[in-house]
Structure formats: C-alpha cells, structure tokens
Adenosine kinase
Amino acid sequence: MSQALYDVIGVGNAIVDVIASCDDAFLASQSIEKGAMTLIDEARAEQLYGAMAPGQEISGGSAANTLAGIASFGAKGAYIGKVAKDELGEIFRHDLNAAGVDYKTAPLAEGPLTARCLINVTPDAQRSMSTFLGASVFFSEEDIDAEKIAASRITYLEGYLFDRDEAKAAFVRASEIARAANRLTSLTLSDSFCVDRHRAAFRQLVRNHIDILFANEAELLSLYETDNFDEALTAVTAETRIAAITRSEKGAVLIRDGQTTAIAAEPVSKVVDTTGAGDLFAAGMLTGLAKGLDLEVCGRLGAIAAAEIISHIGARPNVSLKGLAGKAGISLGGA
C-alpha cells in the first residue's frame, strides 16, 4: 500500500447553510417538522428564506462540516461535492479551502443553483432543516477522483447524497477504489428520513462496502426496523467492522470487531445549537481512526468536537480542535 496523501476524503452534498433563530410558533406557521430535515424545491426555498429571521450564511453540508473538523484537528482532508457556477458556489469553495480542505470538484455549468439548507434553531437548541439540494445532487461517477480516494486512508460517504441512482453508483465506485487500494470506507446514515427512503439500499451498501458506519440511535433503529437498541446493536455488529452510534446527552456507543465501548458526552455549559453535532463527532472519530489511535480515544475526540460545535451557532469549529484535544491530554503528534 502506497503512503497516504490524505487522512480522510469526504463525498457529500455541497450546501450553504442559512441559520436563524426562531420559536416553535414559527415552525408551526411554516409547517416545519421540528428537529427533522425536509427536502424542499426552489420556490419553497425562496418563500421560506423570505419568512425567516435574519440569519448567518455559512458554508455547510454534512460531510464538508466533518472535513472542516478534521482539518481543525490538524489532519489532512479532501472533499468531493458539486456546486453550481454561481456566487454561493464560489463562497462554498473558498470557505472549504480556507479551512484547510483540498476541494477541487468542477462546478455544474448548467442547471440548478448551489444547494442551500435553511436551518431554524429553537431556544431548546433543536435545529429544523429545510433543504433545497440544487446542484449538489447532480453528482455521478464522473466526479469521483480515483487518485485522491486511493491516496486517502478513509473515504467518508454522506447519506444525504444517496438519493439519485447516479450517486448510489458513485458510492459503490468510490468504495471499490478504496478497497482496491487497501483503504477503508465509511458511511454516515445522515438522517432517519434518508434511512426510511433508502433502507434496503443502505443495508446492501453497509453489508458489502462499508468498514465504518456512523449513525445516531434513531437512524440505527430505523435501519434495522426495531425499537430495541440492543437488538439494533447486534444487527449492526454482524454487518460492519466498526460502528459509532451517537445518543445525544447519553454519549455514544462504539463497536469494533464485536467489542462494545461506551463514550460519555463531554460537558457543555450551555447548548446553543445542535447543528453539526454528529458531523463533528465523526470528525473526531475519523481523525483518530486515520491516526491508528485506540477506539476509546477516537470516541473521546468525537465527543470533544461535538461539545465544541453545540456550544455556538454554526456547524464548523470556532477554536482549534487539536488544541482542545491537547488540553484533554490527547496528543495527535504531527497531525
């Protein structure tokens, strides 16, 4: 196996987030399901954007947030995702490269605008997402950078992208390239909404192509169509080598080769915005796994990153995650 140029390469929906505060009455008036992600069309995106309170425009997208977190840990990351040739697309490209992530995917020349996610955050820190996928879904095998995937220790696939057949084929192709290069492939289920839509295809992907699975408790229960957490853990143990299941304030449960490890949540003085908590937990886990660290240490890195992200608005770190890891007594060496 040749030396890796990257620790992690992410494949996902390239989205610009618009994050604004609201109350439950606003969600009700706009028929927004609290705490969930709902796909919307361009007309609805324009209407909702006009109705929302003034917000922050921040480059986002689940896997892109994870890669920004990985870069904050000092690790080397790359990203593959589709934007349009427009202003928001340029903002997304600039922000991700400025965060230290190698991003060079060619933009969509003709078609819909760059994707955007309209996130309304209630006082209890729950985020309710209305997402116009735009250019991000026009992703196919042609966009897979085989050389970069082969040169990455871990390929990280975002479940939100798993909608069109072209993207499904691209996921399989990416995993095949990674396996041929003796690398690892990981997947995040992203949202129960995604699991409900693609359960059978996700199960097949996990069984045949995934080494590392990320999910929250609700997503895992949905994947295996059970309301029994232990039953779901048994099922996922049989289907993938490593799994990381987040459980909000209960922390996380990690599985590696059939062995289970519990990770406590890091204390947070005030939860401001849960946007990106799972993305950043994955950032810590993937950084640790890419560096060959003990599974419990990987989980602690995930918990540290998740705690930082929920302490402020936005899904990208405000401070150096490598610095926080150092304060917690975890050395990432020259990462």
